[in-house]
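hey m, so remember when u said the tokens were messed up on ur end? i reran from scratch. heres the input so u can diff it against urs
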Amino acid sequence: MPKIFRKFKKRHLNNQNHSKKYSILFVILFIILFCVIIFNISDIISSLITQEKSIFYKDKIETTSFTVYAVSVGDYETLDAASSEAQKVIAQGGMGKVYESGEYYLIASIYPTLIEAQEIRDNLRDLGFDSKIININVREVFYDYKAKDKELIVSTINLFRNTFLDLYDLTLKFDSSEIDRLDADEQIASLCAKIASIRSSFLANKNMLQDEINSVIASSLDALYDNTYSLLYFTDSDIYFSSYLKCVMYENVILAKNVSSAFHK
């Protein structure tokens, strides 16, 4: 056989081999693509039947972080030293809670904005107090979660912050004599009903959160309701009621902090 034909035959065989390889590769890719399409269709059908989101859909529980600004009337090296001064603050309608953050701070009240806290701090300094602002930070929640009850969980988490804001608004109105004790009780009763409704919905719902997170939220909801409801049975004078109202605000912020922290463990 002439040499030129031998070369042609060899080249032809190589082309055939390459063609077979590409054909096999094409078949494999086609099979993989076909399986992916079938899997996606099955997942979509399943999500429609079960009312659950597709496994390819990455949904999240999201809430924003926030900061509450506590204004102190003084800071102390020991808890006993701070606690011994607390009654003086309470007798003037202040919170009188001790907050530990490196030192022991005796808190007069807490505020949702820095501007309000700065104004009160400056007023206290003018009166001779060594007043400072302490930030109490509540972390954001950013948690992978794929179920239809996501909005209920978000509403439950936000309930703690919203309760603080409602009570803060109530405090402003009460301290300025815009409302009296009876009006305050009516608003507190309405707030308790709101807490009870969301708590009932959350506890009745079989969600897909981790057991530890569920436990923290459930116990915190109980405490949130008990703290707020206790205001209705406080029978002391208006000055002491104002102080106790601020204490409940503080306790509910700490609950918000505990709930958000449960998602970061």
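this time it looks ok to me. Helices lie at 3-50, 79-90, 114-126, 150-175, 181-204, 211-229, 238-262. if urs says something different then somethings off w ur setup not the seq
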